[in-house]
Design the sequence.
């Protein structure tokens, strides 16, 4: 059952287990949600999306609301994540991008020169009315369950703009970064402003936490990341406003794949929570990130395709290793794979809760 439907867990989103874990406060049980929890693993998603393009769906507040709620109802996860996409701020600003099924974002005119960078249209906040409508509707429907807003980080968005689509090596992106440092800086500055605008709109409308996805940052060395990328990611968080970590601002989660060597830096960019993929165990990740930040992760999404005994063993290992962190939000190490059995996801939510119930903060009110 979702927290929204469970009267025993009458909390407000800003005091939910997710927000508390992000701040390193005691929780009633380890909060759990899944990256890509809304999407093709759910038959109700496939039914609702039939006949509507991905980018059209993301700009329809009623569809966004319904799709975002589907996994909360079905799995009883501890957070909703807004149904959207990292390229949406670019699309809304007028950049010609399509999301091709089975491929990902494809850019009609890739960014390959200083002139291309300067020609990128800015994101006008007035164009985000649909987004704020969706967030407000969601906050009303979700009750005590927090809504996570998100944006793509400047580097990861730059990879799509420069490559023109998904890429493994990101060779053109790196070549541009090395050969055109000034244009690179200008591109990432612009992307940081648009990401901050996109996040700000969601927070102003009531999102309880934000996640900045720098999915492909792991292709960089720590030195290049620190010098050429981190300052721009930090600018996104700075542009979001609010004070230091605490009650006066929504928690910030920062995630990338293959970032084992970058974990301390990812935290330094301004995160309260560092997202970890499956490559680094959470106890080791906690050492790398230090005592001032919480962790999110990190079950290998492929484990969910294995037998039940393997799932249970791996879930319990992740819960156990997560205890080394200041706070732990259970998640996968990357998004739900489309052919995942949704029943297994529901089982994982129940198991994480069972394994982590804490007597220190009972879920039913004391008499
Ligand atoms: C790199 C990236 C993208 N988009 C996103 C990232 C960062 C996260 C990550 O590292 O996976 C972020 C994203 N995209 C989507 C969400 C929704 C929220 C959630 O449930 O996590 C989020 C958080 C929906 C989506 N975004 C997309 C889908 C699938 C489209 C569909 O259902 O038709 C969904 C549910 C499309 C998309 N968009 C993108 C890709 C690679 C794809 C997959 C293409 C495919 O395999 O068909 C770019």
Sequence:
């Amino acid at each position: 059952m979702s927290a929204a439907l469970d009267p025993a867990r009458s909390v407000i989103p800003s005091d939910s287990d997710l927000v508390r874990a992000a701040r390193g406060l005691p929780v009633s049980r380890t909060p759990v949600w899944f990256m890509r929890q809304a999407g093709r693993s759910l038959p109700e998603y496939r039914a609702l999306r039939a006949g509507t393009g991905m980018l059209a769906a993301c700009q329809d507040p009623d569809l966004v609301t319904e799709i975002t709620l589907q996994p909360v109802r079905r799995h009883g996860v501890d957070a909703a994540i807004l149904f959207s996409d990292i390229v949406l701020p670019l699309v809304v600003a007028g950049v010609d991008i399509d999301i091709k099924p089975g491929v990902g974002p494809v850019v009609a005119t890739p960014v390959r020169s200083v002139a291309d960078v300067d020609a990128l249209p800015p994101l006008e906040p007035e164009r985000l009315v649909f987004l704020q409508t969706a967030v407000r509707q969601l906050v009303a429907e979700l009750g005590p369950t927090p809504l996570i807003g998100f944006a793509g980080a400047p580097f990861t968005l730059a990879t799509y703009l420069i490559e023109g689509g998904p890429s493994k090596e990101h060779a053109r992106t790196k070549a541009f970064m090395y050969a055109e440092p000034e244009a690179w800086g200008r591109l990432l500055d612009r992307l940081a402003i648009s990401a901050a605008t996109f996040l700000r709109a969601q927070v102003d409308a009531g999102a309880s936490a934000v996640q900045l996805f720098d999915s492909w940052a792991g292709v960089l060395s720590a030195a290049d990341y620190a010098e050429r990328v981190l300052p721009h990611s930090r600018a996104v968080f700075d542009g979001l406003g609010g004070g230091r970590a605490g009650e006066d601002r929504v928690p910030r989660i920062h995630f990338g794949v293959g970032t084992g060597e970058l974990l301390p830096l990812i935290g330094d960019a301004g995160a309260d929570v560092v997202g970890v993929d499956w490559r680094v165990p959470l106890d080791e990740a906690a050492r790398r990130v230090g005592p001032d930040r919480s962790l999110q992760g990190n079950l290998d999404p492929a484990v969910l395709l294995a037998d039940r005994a393997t799932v249970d063993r791996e879930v319990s290992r992740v819960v156990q290793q997560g205890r080394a962190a200041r706070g732990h939000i259970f998640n996968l190490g990357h998004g739900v794979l489309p052919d995942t059995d949704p029943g297994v996801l529901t089982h994982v939510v129940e198991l994480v809760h069972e394994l982590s119930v804490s007597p220190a903060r009972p879920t039913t009110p004391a008499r």
Summary: The domain at 3-356 is CATH 3.20.20.210 (TIM Barrel). Residues 9 and 196 are 32 Å apart (CA to CA).
